[in-house]
Amino acid sequence: MHKNELAARYEQAAAILPNRLRKVALGLSEGEKAAAEEIRLRAGRPLTVLLPTGELSLEAEVEPEELETLCDIATEFSRYAAAETIREGFLPVRGGFRVGLCGSAVMKDGTNTNLKNLSSAAIRIARERKGIGAGIVPKLFQNGVFISTLILSPPGGGKTTLLRDMVRLLSEGSGGVPAQRISLIDERGEVAVVYRGQPQMDVGPHTDVLDACPKALGIPLVLRAMNPQIIAVDEITVREDLAAVHMAAGCGVGLLATIHASGVPELLGKPLYRQLLEDQVFRLAVRIVGSESGRAYELEALPC
Q1: Pairing with 125, which of 8, 41, 113, 143 sits 20 to 30 Å away (CA)?
Q2: Each residue's pLDDT tens digit, 164-215
Q3: How far apart (Å, rounded) are the C-alpha atoms in residues 191 and 162?
Q4: CB 116 within 8 A of CB 90
């Protein structure tokens, strides 16, 4: 995206804010708008904008009622229709935005059924960076077959953005590779940002999205229902995810997944991920490396 396009995305995100806060948020410089990653609201605290250098406080204290208004605007005044994701702590918003929420959990039989008395919200400004995976995707095939691949980086390193673009490229067909049927398990709604059944981000023409479903449940579901060639998931974090991933691998389906790690040595140092490598479910890794000039993507074979 060009700088003016990045600033425009910020302005679209600010449109979700109540009117008083929106006016303040739009007072940033064009450079700050282009760099902004999140707009954050905390009841009784100043409105802030998350920049690469940290949170910038603005001259507007957030009132509790404005958090409720934010939810109304984000759901287009149909909050009941978003009840399932609100209880999970987020809202997908038309245009490809996602609002994270905190408040008082309403518990019933040990399960959270709703959030009330909202105390905080974070509007994540997701930006598509189309083409960043173009140099990697054709290298993930051997004799025309996709090799299961991990995307590695520390938190905030750009894993989800790269995953989204790789899913799109695989779904479209790229670099001489034919289009693949992709099932995307978007547990936290961050990759496709599905709003009322339609992905707000471009994840390709042959991608089927299962939204807001745990990976351990979603992987068996799409295996039965969608006949995927590749299953893509964001952030393998728990042992239940590993069992489902093993099931998919046993069915001959390719896997594309992200993990929080700076590289293979860190993976080997964690028992959960060491088991994943020992079982050879994944054979390749794309490591995201940050530098002053931007991000680079390094492909390496995983140890056998």
Answers
A1: 113
A2: 999 999 999 988 889 999 999 999 888 999 988 899 999 999 999 999 899 9
A3: 10
A4: no
